[in-house]
# Entry
Amino acid sequence: MGLLTAGVALAMLTTGCVATPTEDASSAAAGAPRLRLALNFAPMADLSPYTDDATSLVRMGATESLITIDANGEPQPALAESFEMVDEFTAKFTLRSGVSFHDGTAVNAEAVVNSLTHAFNADPAPGTVSGRGLTAAAEGDNVVLVTSPKADPVLVMRFANPDMVILAPKAYEADANKPNPIEAGTGPFKLTALNGTTDATLEANTDYWGGAPKLSGLDVKFISEAASRVSALRAGELDVIQNVPIAQLANMDGFVVETRPIPRTTGLLLNTRSGAFTDPGLRAAAVAAIDQDVLAQTIFEDNADPAEGLFRGDTSWTADRPAPQLPAATDPANTTITIATYDDRPELPEAVTVVADQLRKAGFTVETPVVKSYAVLEAELLAGNYDAVIASRMYMSKANDPLSVIESDFTCEGGYNLSFLCDAEIDAEVAAAVGVSDVDARLAAAVAAEAKVLSTGAYIPLVHEQVRIGRTEQVSGLAEDPLEWQMITNQTTLSE
# Structure
């Protein structure tokens, strides 16, 4: 179904390939159109790349990493024209020559090492590199070496992630823990203004290394309410919107909705640290209560697939995964629980209502679900304020490596462990696997760890999602990124 081929991606790490800039020299001359774009997540930290804002920066075409990932899951050059694993501890990146940041300073080895070192030392550090003890060093003017104290077979791939974008030295001057991306990126569009959490302005980077953009600039609005995005598109106020809600598909006549399956799963995470779901038997009862088919057919109107696991089952490496082994269920009578989700993804508030009803039918007493914007809710989720959380997660977003998401989300020291799962057996298995370089063995380890996580009942997969980008018929050249990172490119244009 067009998903990333993890095995191919990992196999490509030993030698990098070289790409040349596009030969299309169409420039953003005076009179070129501007694109009006709506994204569904408001900035959490003034578009600092050390937060989830990193993805918005990449979607707008403002920032870039050393490498990128193509539709086949293969690493491709970006700011680095070639790359390789020197050994299992060291990644080597050879930079493009003649590339400049938006402020005019050179993208050389010294600047890249400065940017990476700030990321490695940030408090807190970006999730991609947090706790890994990585160091970066320049070798001449255009070669950067990144070293890990532990064997890391996917070290190269970590530098495709949005939180690893390369910024100009000035970005770190005011606050090294919160870089300022204004006129500090390298992408086809220069971020020139950010108006709080409401909108941003970008101008064409006519000196872009991949060829001058076909647009003169972007006017971006951050609109979390899905129906408002659709209404603005229909009213002629926008040209492109992110994440068309399923409930609004019937209202998209005359517009184009680009749809494709993606490695994103919506699931229910149960708090194993405090509250009712510290009891494995109650977690098992919750697992038994959930009917994924109902969710896929009703809330998602068959625009999503019922999930049997964290990972989609339509790839070769998930074909023979073991079935979870849950403990005996405990009678949930007289057990009161709280459940929360965020409204930035429009189906989640509806899904939480259905899930709450299913849990009630099983005997749980479920308080009125809490629904807030993700920016408000995130701190509460990380603090463990709720018994259960419905969240949507890209499971290939950590270095295009499913094992890395298991490590981040379901180990004791995981940086995004919303279920607070801490299982010594899972930790030991993951710790042993993360150093494995054999592709098939690494993928098999991810699938085995998935089964162990599901056997704890800490995570209940609900549906596998699809991306839906709405646009006018005049828009073309949007990125077809299976990871949902890139959207606007130098080839994006708006016809008459």
